[in-house]
UniProtKB/TrEMBL annotation:
Belongs to the small heat shock protein (HSP20) family. This is Hsp20/alpha crystallin family protein. It comes from Mucilaginibacter dorajii. Residues 34-145 form the SHSP domain. InterPro entries: A-crystallin/Hsp20_dom, CS_dom, HSP20-like_chaperone, Small_HSP. Gene3D superfamilies: 2.60.40.790. Residues 38-141 form the CS domain. PROSITE patterns: CS (PS51203), SHSP (PS01031). Pfam families: HSP20.
């Protein structure tokens, strides 16, 4: 026996509870829902005293799949992965075969574009962008006269 919850606590719906529940179940399907969600990796951006850190969550890729380019002050991270055909296998269902994304970041003037490093570990791409010497936090004590 299957329990179907109608109305989800909403009252006075002009379209009726069945209409909403049918489309909610279709749109919340994990396969279809995943296809509707943009395939852009999540990013964390942090600033320390000496550098900027950009981390992108890109699991399932290899280092060879990633491409990092710098054009003027625009840093672009992109990837393209194609699933290889497997000889001798007959798939009854195959839902993945191609994955690509591109994200661009405008670097601030304080970033040293000649000192950018990239490291890919455990599905996280970490970009470290050094700051120019004059842009580093400088602290000093100011005497009161």
């Amino acid at each position: 026996m299957t329990l179907v919850k109608f109305n989800n606590g909403l009252k006075n719906n002009a379209r009726g509870p069945f209409f909403n529940d049918v489309f909610d179940s279709i749109l919340n399907d994990s396969f279809l829902g995943d296809k509707l969600v943009a395939r852009i990796p999540a990013v964390n951006i942090a600033e320390t005293e000496n550098e900027f850190e950009v981390e992108l969550a890109v699991p399932g890729l290899k280092k060879e799949d990633l491409k990092i380019a710098l054009d003027k002050n625009i840093l672009t991270v992109s990837a393209e992965k194609k699933t290889e055909t497997i000889e001798g296998k007959k798939f009854s269902k195959r839902e993945y075969s191609y994955y690509s994304f591109s994200r661009s970041f405008t670097l601030p003037e304080s970033a040293d574009q000649s000192k950018i490093e990239a490291d890919y570990t455990d599905g996280v791409l970490k970009l470290t962008i050094a700051k120019k010497e004059e842009a580093k936090f400088q602290s000093r004590e100011i005497a009161v006269k």
